[in-house]
Write a structure and sequence with these properties.
This protein is mainly alpha-helical. The chain is about 65% helix and about 0% strand. Helix 2 runs parallel beside helix 4. The protein starts with about 50 loop residues before the first helix and ends with a helix.
Amino acid sequence: MAEQTTSTAICTGSGRAGSAREPGEPGQAGTPGEGRPGAGGPGGGGPEKADSAVVRDALGVGVAVGLSGFAFGVTSAGSGLSALQTCALSLLVFTGASQFALVGAIAAGGNPLTAAAGAFFLGVRNSFYGLRLSQLLALPRVLRPFAAHWVIDETTAVSLAQPTRRSARIGFTVTGLTLYVLWNLTTLLGALGAEAIGDTDAWGLDAAGPAVFLALLAPMLRTSTERAVAGIAVVLGLGLLPVLPAGVPVLVAALAAPAVLYVEGRRAARTETGESPHESPDENSRVTSQKADGRQGEDR
């Protein structure tokens, strides 16, 4: 789910070197500049991947992540939503962290509109995934509205890991179908189980959703930029929790991403111009002047 993890290991299966590609596939002769899907860059395709290996990898990702729908069902029922409402969210929304954010804000007494806004912003990145996958998969127009519902982190990761368009389509389809079926089935089981045991707070199940979300998110923080965004977002969210209405701290925490990206952009610009990020403009001018004087002395 978009907001779930892409860190599940995607193994590269044995290739079928030399087998034919579909017309117009990346890496095929006659389509210069179109890179192999898994690499995302220009160049040829490399060995193809057996269909069975693609299916195996896709099933592994789908099963591993799909089972976490149980935690969402428990969390949603504990927040006061009925089993029908919980299942409708998984069927129609199908974006894990957005669903967790929505029911979490509602459970904290937040305004439903504010909770929906927070969930919306968490799911916005799926649209960027869609732009990439639309070029990679090149599905017929009639299928695109249905495929769009399955554009999430896992389907994107599996598709981009494949060497050809055919294997990318297989990976996308198998991952999406497996995840959708399992996520909705386990959501139902979690909702019914939570209703059967009564007060989820007494069992400590109210912490199941946040715990699963953090477990899914942590492996995705691979770079210092991503860790900085997560850290600042946590500080903003927890720090503002006592003073702002429920659901609003999540929206404010989203400002961590543009703030960190702005700082990184300024740092990169300084690096390109040769200015040290720790030097002030006056110091940089003085160093430049000293270098110029040195060159003039050499000329003399």
